[in-house]
Design a protein that fits this description.
single chain, 384 residues, alpha/beta, Aminopeptidase, Alpha-Beta Plaits, 2 domains, eight-stranded mixed sheet, 9 helices, elongated
Length: 384
């Protein structure tokens, strides 16, 4: 097969858009990706489907004179969203949609893989088609299950995320944190229920929860450097069954977001302290569950990211913008804590839709523009 053309990549993207699948269920997507990959020149390729993560795909390209192994990751899962784009290639899977643009991500990765299968790179290259980014911490699962071993271990790692706010094909990046880390917060307060007329015989978890919620609001304002950014959102509270019964149990659910892992760990500890204090002062059980999974902050490697930005800024064929950090989460952060690397934005030119929205409709011109920009950077990187 010759190198994939723009029209070929668009057709691949449209087929991928039609078959979105949720985390760890990406079998049809996986099989289609393998079908496309098997059509490439295999002279330099080694394709591996790890038993430990069966919807993942690793493709190793043997370099002509390798000094390192450069990794490139794309995510492949979709979201539980009912599509409302009215596109002729809309999702065929009811209630599931590529509402975060992973179909674009995969198409760009296939474009790069297609090119380097026909034009042997100097360095080894490892393409990682990752399941379960949206949930289930697929990147963390891949690392902890040992799929990056031996020749399949990257020395540095790159990946993109589409951005509907940026014009199609624009590359955005920044040194430092690109995405915040996120942690799920679940708090269960266990007291004693009772009749509303006899509060002395009960232990009201609603009153304790109200006090805890107000104290949590001081964590960011009084425990975090105001120059930094962090967010605690307690978005769900569930308590009681009827108006005249004191609630013996209350559950609070929320999220923590922070720009560095150090900050998130600091917020975690302050929450533990507050929950312990409420438990003592109200004489009840307060159980705190913190679940970060693989959604660590995406902290770009300083040296590699500076090199990436310099290339993109100095390439007259690339529109580059320096972006601000986002408080949304991405499990690529866990992988960047294990391998040095860089995550960046690819503009897809749909400013009227947000990521995860049912109307997201990326401009397909972004695919080949992204391929060309990233291809140029990778070739340049291999020359350094």
């Amino acid at each position: 097969m010759a190198v994939l053309t723009e029209s070929g990549l668009i057709q691949i993207r449209r087929h991928l858009h039609e078959i979105p699948e949720l985390a760890l269920q990406e079998k049809e997507t996986h099989d289609y990706l393998l079908e496309v990959i098997k059509g490439f020149n295999s002279e330099f390729l080694t394709v591996k489907v790890p038993e430990e993560l069966p919807t993942a795909i690793l493709v190793l390209i043997k370099g002509s004179n390798p000094q390192r192994t450069i990794g490139y990751r794309t995510d492949i899962d979709a979201l539980p969203v009912e599509e409302k784009t009215d596109l002729p290639f809309s999702s065929k899977h009811s209630g599931v949609m590529h509402a975060c643009g992973h179909d674009i991500h995969m198409s760009v990765a296939l474009g790069l893989l297609s090119y380097f299968s026909e034009n042997q790179p100097k360095d080894n290259m490892l393409f990682f088609f990752q399941p379960a980014e949206e949930s289930e911490s697929g990147g963390k699962k891949a690392y902890e299950r040992g799929i990056f071993q031996g020749k399949f271990k990257p020395d540095e790692l790159y990946g993109l995320h589409d951005n509907p706010e940026l014009p199609a094909g624009t590359i955005g990046c920044r040194e430092g944190t690109l995405f915040a880390g996120t942690t799920e917060v679940n708090i269960d307060l266990v007291g004693k229920g009772g009749h509303a007329a006899f509060p002395q015989n009960a232990n009201d978890t609603v009153v304790a929860a109200a006090s805890l919620i107000m104290q949590v609001q001081t964590v960011i304002s009084r425990s975090i450097d105001p120059i930094q950014s962090g967010v605690i959102t307690l978005g769900k509270v569930r308590a009681g069954t009827i108006r005249n019964v004191i609630a013996g149990q209350t559950r609070i659910e929320g999220t923590i977001r922070g720009l560095t892992q150090k900050m998130i760990l600091q917020i975690d500890q302050r929450l533990r302290d507050l929950c312990e204090g409420i438990a003592r002062s109200y004489n009840m059980k307060v159980n705190l569950e913190l679940n970060q999974g693989g959604y660590w902050p995406v902290e770009n490697n300083p040296e590699l990211t500076k090199n990436f930005i310099n290339y993109m800024k100095n390439n007259p064929e690339v529109d580059f913008v320096e972006t601000k950090p986002k408080m949304t989460g991405e499990d690529f952060g866990f992988l960047l804590a294990k391998f040095p690397g860089t995550m960046f934005w690819l503009g897809v030119g749909d400013p009227n839709s947000q990521l995860h929205s049912a109307t997201l409709n990326p401009d397909e011109k972004s695919i080949m523009r992204g391929v060309n920009a990233i291809k140029g950077f990778l070739i340049d990187r291999m020359g350094n």
